[in-house]
Write a structure and sequence with these properties.
Number of helices: 20
Shape: globular
Number of strands: 0
Strand content: under 5%
Largest sheet: none
Mean pLDDT: 78
Length: 430
């Protein structure tokens, strides 16, 4: 019995925690009338303690994790100087598609209104909300007066800018500062391990957050959660089947239907594994079979698994609108632009492993002052959405790779069209 319980994956435990929390919350809402047991003991103490403790653990991770990840990510782009325009084009396309993804998500969120009807205003902590900034204030606030103060207070935009600058300087100085670079790489590894440790408590945290939420909301909370799922899935579908094919046709004139026929096996692999990193070998092999030069794919695919997180950006955009509507907050244009910028930067600091996007989502929420407690409501169903997100992420990596290869005259159109055999790179990904 114990061995069977140990064999259950963390993602499934989180899903179990969500379902149990939902059922316990509904039971308390409809069948427990004793105020002392229901509110004072359970909701205001046990569930509040468990849920809030988990949220605080997530908050604890955000600043050091994102700062170190962005420093390491920027420092690792030193190879661009060797590759020249290939690196510049690759990163530019990745950042543009991510910006488009989060913009689409924000638009869908405004249209579908996933958080409408989930009245969380009474529990909102809005002490530090600054949604009425002008665009000028937003730009000026990106540059920290004191970076250590920004790190201490969790002011994410200055932290991101400071991290990018540090990473760029480390990339420029290379061997002169190799000790410092290794320090950040090792610290980033420590933070990823700490993230894995904190995530082990996610099922308990999700259970408490769901029980506390639905004990007060009842069935009324189900509709917004369903609308949130629909919002994310529509955004992912638009990105995968409209944005990407449009870019492929615009830059290469290749047939996107032929691409998807060849690439569908990689999408299923990514869907089942929920990790972009694990899909790197099969992705490189597949684009090579389509006619991409291995010299190009060996750079663009691993880079994309690190910085190209369009699916995650869509989830973050939908989650922002969900939380803003649930807590009755109006995001100004400056706030929306801040979300776009922060989500794009968060994609650089998001590792290609399952569900880590939820940790950086805390950073996006903090950038516009949204209560991170809303993350607990969507946490339980994230694994299912994460599978779809990963499939979209690796599709974006492949499309970008084909475009860059085509523009640099390192793409064999005859191979893509099936007129001659491909020279594959022979990676064993079984």
């Amino acid at each position: 019995m114990i061995s069977k319980l140990k064999s259950i994956s963390l993602s499934n435990w989180i899903l179990i925690g969500m379902i149990l929390g939902f059922l316990v919350g509904l039971f308390l809402n409809f069948f427990v009338s004793d105020h002392f047991i229901k509110n004072i003991i359970l909701i205001d103490n046990v569930f509040y303690l468990g849920g809030t403790l988990f949220i605080k653990l997530m908050k604890m991770l955000v600043v050091p994790l994102v700062f170190c990840s962005i420093v390491v990510g920027a420092a690792s782009i030193s190879d661009i100087r060797k590759i020249g325009t290939i690196g510049g084009r690759t990163i530019l396309i990745y950042l543009i598609t991510t910006a488009l993804a989060v913009t689409i998500a924000l638009g869908l969120g405004a249209l579908i209104q996933p958080g409408a009807g989930l009245n969380m205003v009474a529990s909102a902590d809005v002490a530090n909300v600054t949604l009425n900034q002008t665009m000028t204030d937003t730009i000026l606030n990106m540059v920290p007066d004191n970076p250590f103060s920004s790190l201490a207070s969790g002011d994410m935009l200055p932290v991101i800018i400071f991290g990018l600058l540090i990473g760029i300087i480390l990339a420029k100085l290379k061997e002169e500062v190799s000790v410092v670079t290794r320090f950040f790489e090792q610290t980033n590894h420590i933070m990823m391990e700490l993230t894995s440790l904190v995530m082990k408590f996610a099922p308990i945290g999700v259970f408490c957050l769901m029980a506390k939420t639905f004990a007060g909301l009842g069935f009324e909370g189900l509709l917004p959660l369903g609308k949130y799922i629909i919002c994310v899935l529509i955004g992912l579908a638009i990105q995968a089947f409209i944005v990407y094919p449009s870019l492929l046709v615009a830059f290469t004139r290749l047939n996107p239907i032929r691409f998807f026929k060849k690439f569908v096996s990689v999408m299923f692999f990514a869907f089942s594994s929920s990790t972009s990193n694990a899909t790197i070998p099969i992705n490189m092999e597949k684009v090579s079979e389509m006619g991409v030069s291995p010299e190009i794919s060996s750079f663009t695919i691993p880079l994309g698994a690190t910085i190209n997180m369009d699916g995650t950006a869509i989830m973050q955009g939908c989650a922002v609108m969900f939380a803003a509507q649930a807590y009755g907050m109006d995001l100004t244009m400056a706030g929306l632009l801040t979300v776009i910028f922060t989500a794009v930067m968060a994609s650089i600091g998001t590792a290609g492993v399952p569900s880590v996007g939820l940790v950086t989502l805390t950073m996006v929420f903090n950038s516009v002052g949204l209560p991170v407690e809303a993350i607990g409501i969507i946490f339980g169903i994230d694994h299912i959405l994460d599978m779809f997100r990963t499939a979209v992420n690796v599709t974006g990596d492949a499309i970008c790779t084909i475009i860059v290869s085509f523009q640099n005259k390192a793409f064999d159109v005859d191979v893509f069209n099936g007129k001659k055999a491909a020279k594959t790179i022979g990676i064993d990904y079984e």
